[in-house]
């Protein structure tokens, strides 16, 4: 079963501009899908529609077996990681990770267990007592990813999460996020990922499949190898 299904998805903005033209796409359960394309090709519009942050003006969006067109973000089983990952400055890493779960009324022992599990997966158990200002850019971005992991979402949405990092950190985060996806799969919590980037290298090294967009239309959907052989 396709985990995320976009059928003839369209977006017409309030000013009448049509940003997305009948996009059809199936993202499989546990798959790492990358949306790539130049600025303005509608990567974030699509991601924000999947997240429920932008209305869908045509077509159908399913997550699992559920049609989610009209559902609020919280009810979609998704978690989103942004490039501007604003952590709460007055809270430790532990508290940053735990905050959303506590708000949702998750019992304390389960909060502690989920936070610890996320910290293990991201190799940041030693950072739990630190405050955001004591973290490097890469460490802070890991905490931002951790905040998504603790929610145990069905679908992870990444919006250019590495674009504020320098080249060296970006390279190491690419590896970390790819490993994280594999580890989640191996630990029996496979993560369906939609990852938006304008960076070809990120797309080619991280995506299991890549969806190439241009002006709100899908140009190609294929594996990195196939795209590399037949660009
Ligand atoms: P990308 O993420 O690929 O850079 P966007 O999804 O941000 O592209 O934008 C896709 C197109 O939609 C662009 O032409 C952009 O100018 C337009 N657009 C984005 N937001 C709005 C809006 N709120 N109103 C009108 N047009 C918009
Ligand atoms: P509250 O602020 O609501 O009292 P805490 O976040 O302080 O809740 O603690 C909740 C539980 O999480 C505690 O029982 C504790 O075992 C665990 N915990 C808190 N901080 C850490 C930490 N830095 N590392 C590991 N476990 C922690």
From TrEMBL:
Per its UniProt entry, which superkingdom is the organism in? Bacteria
- Which of UniProt's keywords are assigned here? ATP-binding, Cell inner membrane, Cell membrane, Membrane, Nucleotide-binding, Transport
Supply the name of the protein: Sn-glycerol-3-phosphate ABC transporter ATP-binding protein UgpC
Q: Which residues form the ABC transporter domain?
A: 4-231
For this record, the Gene Ontology CC terms, alphabetical, are: ATP-binding cassette (ABC) transporter complex, substrate-binding subunit-containing; maltose transport complex
Annotated GO MF terms: ABC-type maltose transporter activity; ATP binding; ATP hydrolysis activity
- Organism, by scientific name, is Paucibacter sediminis
Please state the gene responsible for encoding this protein: ugpC
Work out whether the entry's keyword set contains Cell wall biogenesis/degradation: no
Full protein: residues contained? 1 to 231 of 373
